[in-house]
Amino acid sequence: MYLGLKIRIYPNKMQKEIIDEHIEGARYVYNYFLNYAKEKSIYDLEIWKKELQLLIEKRNKKELINCDYYLLMNQLYILKNTFDSYFKNLCLEPHFKKKTAIISAFKISNKNQNIIISNNHIYIELLGNLKAKISKDIKNNKIYSIVVKRTTNNIYEASILYDAFIPFFKKTYRRVGIDIGVRKFITTSDKEFILPPDNLKAIEDRIRRLQKLLSNKEKESNNWFKLKDKIAKLHIYRNNYIKDILNKATTKLVKEYDVIFMENISIHELVKQQEKKAVRRKIMESSLNSIREMLIYKCKMYGKKLILIDRFFPSSKICSECGFRHDPKDEETFICPVCGLTIDRDYNAAKNIYNYGMSKKQEWIIVRRLASEFACNTGTN
């Protein structure tokens, strides 16, 4: 199974220059062929390759002088895959990469075994030995590729794609419904809550104060750059802090339950429905989509099942006791006017999601059986 490992790297001055050159070269090639494809309506990879060779042969672009050819070629494959997904309505239209992007990166494939992992070092043929902080022992694993990244505050990272065997978690024969939201990250039908940590608000308040100070500084002055770096570091700390909480929570769910029911929510639609700007910002910053993505790959990794129910199912408007549909005005408490049930709104929604998922149990068993029969007939795994 393919797994990714994100690590911190510490390049020296010369290695930083090489990384920066290749990031700029990759950005230039991506933007050049995005513009080329849009202007001439040519989406053929072979034509792009010929054009790239002509572009490199001219050697009149400083961004391409010292860049590795295969690394630049890789940008064409990335752009082609993005266009293919766009034409299938799987993603938004490709956009130009900016110099001021939060993360700038380039990808190196390990076709000729030019990437070697050792104790706290990574050998890359292009860069030589890189100091690194590696949390897992993957020396004996097959390495497929590595993506070298640079953040806005000049922190360098690497994402390693490698092959690994992951044993499945033991079966628990338990099922659960979960509701995800802003006030509570995760609420389960077994009345467990994953709340945002208390000090998260303090971090966000500090970011707001520093942004206010930044607006009063002279733009692009030394103090302006120092403050901007400080804000960027706080944003990274906040995002990593939330990811750590969600990773631990989702792993716990996958370990304790065999089947997890959750709504197939659309963050884009959820944001559009909100009138208040503060609420919209809160939804976008709460990493709700990350929870679903984490559960999808962890259920696949550990042999569990995630059932995504209809996103239009009104889980927060139905009484989990009597089934009466009612739109509560209170954001935190659901009070049923028929049976008088008073319950936490998110917990009520989680119970409804569980009940809905169990009522459709026969359907998803049939779907699973049909999928296994199709796999047998076609000889696929």
Q: Give helix % range.
A: 40-55%
Low-confidence stretches: 377-381
- Structural class given helices, strands, pairing? alpha+beta
Order of helices and strands: EHHHEEEEEEEEEHHEHHHEEEHH
Number of helices: 10
Please describe what this structure looks like:
The protein is built from ten helices and 14 strands. By secondary structure, the chain is of the alpha+beta class. It folds into two domains: 2-163, no CATH class; 175-195 and 244-378, 2-Layer Sandwich (Nucleotidyltransferase, domain 5), CATH 3.30.420. The strands form three sheets. Strands 2-6-7-1-5-4-3 form a seven-stranded antiparallel β-sheet. Helix 5 (222-256) packs across helix 8 (288-302) and helix 6 runs antiparallel to helix 7 (277-285). The protein is globular and about 80 Å long. Mean pLDDT is 82; it is low at 377-381.
Q: What's a quick, concise take on this entry?
A:
The protein is an alpha+beta fold. The protein folds into two domains: 2-163, no CATH class; 175-195 and 244-378, Nucleotidyltransferase, domain 5, CATH 3.30.420. The chain contains ten helices and 14 strands.
